[in-house]
Amino acid sequence: MIKGTLRAVLISALVMAGLALTSRPAAAGGCGSPGCGGEVSNNTSRYIQIANCWYESDGYWYQEGDHLSCTGAPVRIGNVPDARIGLAPGDWSSEGQYSAYYDTDAVKFPGGCRTTYHWWGTLQSVEDRRNKPALWVRIFDPEHIYIDNITCP
Question: Which of 13, 34, 56, 59 sits 20 to 30 Å CA-CA off 22?
Answer without folding.
Answer: 34
